[in-house]
Amino acid sequence: MHEGPNGQLVAHSRAQCAKLDSVSNELIETVQSEATERMARAVAHTKSEFAGVRTGRATPALVEKLPVEYYGSTVPLQQLAGFSVPEARMLFITPFDKGAMPAIEKALQNSNLGLNPSNDGITVRLAFPPLTEERRKEFVKLVKAKAEDGRTAVRSARRDSRKDLEALEKDGDISEDDLQRAEAGLDRTTKQYESEIDEALSAKTVELLEG
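Structure (tokenized):
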């Protein structure tokens, strides 16, 4: 069947629309991907901050990233030692090189953890005394502040991405409908990552109050 001029125009128009839709979707996906990446980093950082707040329980996460001055360089403790938890309130830190023990003890003493390290010549021992009620409340307040910092970072990613999407719509790269759909998706992603922070905060709060 021979296709007339009108049919060719329609086909061409559809092809152009499909091409524009593809470009629009690609631009939107790029913005959304960048936002998701930033939000994921914010959540990961918040969880890392939670791990650095001590409870009455022994955990390597509390000290593994502690900076240690060793042979003129600053390195995280986890690169210098292995960890074990022989009991709920005791952490063993075993240096890979015994010569690192003084530097490790010094780093622990200078930290704000309020723990007193001891050693038997092979292993550094950290005893975790139960937290007082006052300290528990202080730490709960601290993790709530860290959670809010995380939420702020997530919302900042959403705000910046919205600006990028609005700029695309203003320049005619995406349609108003595209913008609305993209913003709705961005809001869903934001809520997802905020919920993840809330869940981590809830778990850490329980740990602090029970530890």
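The chain is about 60% helix and 15% strand. Helices lie at 5-51, 101-110, 133-170, 176-210.
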